[in-house]
Amino acid sequence: MHPTPPSADRRVPVGPSRRRFLQAGGFATAALALGACASDESVGSGATTVGPAGDSSTTDAQAGSAGPTPVTNALTVADFAGLATCVLLPEQTAGPFPLDEQFVRRDITEGIDGRPMHLGFRVVDNACAAVPGAQVEVWHCDVTGDYSAFEDGGSGKDEGPGTTFLRGTQIADADGIVELFSIVPGWYEGRAVHIHLRVRVDDATVLTSQVYFDPAHLETVYGRAPYAERGLPDTSNEDDGFAGDVATNGTLLATSEATTERGEPSTLALLNLGIDPAATSQ
Length: 282
Description:
This protein is mostly beta strands. It has one domain (21-282): Aromatic compound dioxygenase (Protocatechuate 3,4-Dioxygenase, subunit A), CATH 2.60.130.10. Helices cover 8% and strands 21% of the residues. It has three helices and eight strands. A four-stranded mixed β-sheet has the order 4-1-8-7. Strands 3-2-5-6 form a four-stranded antiparallel β-sheet, with no helix packed on it.
């Protein structure tokens, strides 16, 4: 199968309109933090949310407004110290599934079933300096390959306009750190497993990109319910039309096994997110 050309994603939305590394040290500390941040809310059947208890982040707020402030994060600079740094992520397509609306919240699961994932970014510039206040927005598909907000042809279900699951924005703290709590994404035809992101600094979008997963980690995750029914993705990072060389371009998440406070398997995914604060993005 030929990869989708890098000008557009494979599927075309018919929903609402839109505007147009390496596994390294520090995971032990973050895994402990994962347990400390877990709550009793359900992600879906048989799973536990790894989001912070008492998270009072505002939804449906504009990330560009002066209102949102950084939350206190469990991850620290030490958790990112062993990862590749000072690599500016490449500009990559936002795909056909971004929204203008921002949902400023740390737990983005909305009860969606899947393996809990603690996602951490440290936003840095090309001099390795933290970028406090950077607004990091993420969105990704669910276990079946379905994106919220769009009728996109996701396998198994296709929830469209009005849904907001697996979308959220957080504000980098004084160390440039952002944390979100989600599930490991599923896959859909013609794409490697990925997470979309946009970064804003001072109300300007400075980066639009995507980040990718270690296939060995995905093989472990996808061998278990609820992923096992669909099996492994049909497209590798190497064959993806967007990914490029994830080993060198800064887009490969460092993933490790972790557990929730109930002892259930979860994923810790970290990245030093390199940006040019003066750049202009789509």
